[in-house]
Write a structure and sequence with these properties.
The structure is a single chain. By secondary structure, this protein is an alpha/beta fold. The strands form three sheets. It has an eight-stranded mixed beta sheet with strand order 7-6-1-8-9-11-10-12, sandwiched between helices. A two-stranded antiparallel ribbon has the order 2-5. It has a two-stranded antiparallel ribbon with strand order 3-4. It has eleven helices and twelve strands. Helix 2 packs across helix 5, helix 2 packs parallel to helix 6 (108-115) and helix 8 packs parallel to helix 9 (180-194).
Length: 287
């Protein structure tokens, strides 16, 4: 599957990914020791929602715009607040017909930088030249971040384990390559041996459920432990990208309970019709 992010910025899949990313970063911040974030497919870092790509699909209107306009119950609101505050801090938006409409949507590198502390560090990898140029511009002179114009899988193998010895690896490829899953599994196999205590967050589009199921079993086998799975389907059975998920290795221990609350509220808010679903479970390794 080809997933060009500029066309889909701020959509339901971004909301899912970035809500989870925010919760994990907040858990990492609970300990005073520094942590490192490695973003293997960082993209441009910020996306113009009124630019030619995002305007063409308008997916953000049924994604982040819906979430910002909705009123969650108290328990979900508390967990969601850091994500919404981060989005607003990166883009105050503008007022239109009495509502705040976002102008830009931050990618994972800017979300991470907003939540990181002075002692934490980010390595953001992007190989596509125009996106790499934009990413460098969007990161600016922030001394906590290092942008590398390199294949993310190559960088991941080279930069682990970091000196901080704790952190998060985010793998969010566009799935343009036919061998993407094989490359991801090959890289995780090598990296896991060097840094088995890290939190790994792997995003995937959910189009072929059999292939994803095989991927999940192989991933759990590689790391020889349970892998937490998060999926959101906003239009079950429809064509196009209507479902996406995350595999999380070594999730913070309270994350599953938090996501049960958040996905229970987000799924109907983001749904495109009566057929929607979400999934939270553990994938066990096969002995």
């Amino acid at each position: 599957m080809n997933y060009r992010h500029a066309f889909h910025a701020g959509n339901f899949a971004d909301v899912l990914k970035h809500v989870v990313l925010t919760r994990i970063l907040l858990h990492l911040r609970e300990k005073p020791a520094a942590f490192r974030v490695i973003d293997t497919h960082a993209g441009a870092g910020r996306f113009d929602l009124f630019g030619p790509e995002a305007s063409r699909t308008g997916e953000w209107r049924n994604g982040i715009a819906r979430v910002q306009a909705a009123v969650p119950p108290a328990d979900a609101a508390t967990l969601l607040a850091p994500y919404l505050e981060t989005i607003s801090a990166c883009d105050p938006g503008h007022e239109s017909e009495g509502a705040i409409v976002p102008c830009n949507y931050p990618g994972s590198p800017l979300i991470a930088l907003h939540l990181m502390r002075p002692q934490d560090r980010l390595i953001a990898c992007e190989i596509e030249p125009s996106s790499a140029d934009l990413l460098l511009r969007n990161i600016g002179s922030d001394s906590r971040a290092k942008m590398i114009a390199i294949d993310g899988y190559v960088a991941l193998n080279a930069y682990v384990p970091p000196k901080e010895r704790r952190g998060l690896v985010l793998v969010d490829p566009p799935f343009e390559r036919s061998d993407e899953v094989a490359s991801l599994l090959h890289t995780i196999t090598k990296v896991w041996r060097k840094w088995p205590t890290d939190i790994y967050m792997l995003w995937y589009p959910l189009k072929d459920r059999r292939r994803v199921a095989a991927f999940s079993r192989e991933l759990a086998s590689i790391v020889a432990r349970k892998v937490f799975r998060v999926e959101l389907d906003i239009a079950a059975g429809e064509d196009g990208l209507a479902a996406a998920g995350l595999f999380i290795i070594n999730p913070p221990w309270r994350l599953a309970d938090e996501l049960k609350i958040l996905l229970g509220w987000l799924a109907p808010v983001l749904a495109q019709g009566p057929s929607f679903a979400h999934r939270l479970d553990w994938v066990c390794c096969e002995k």
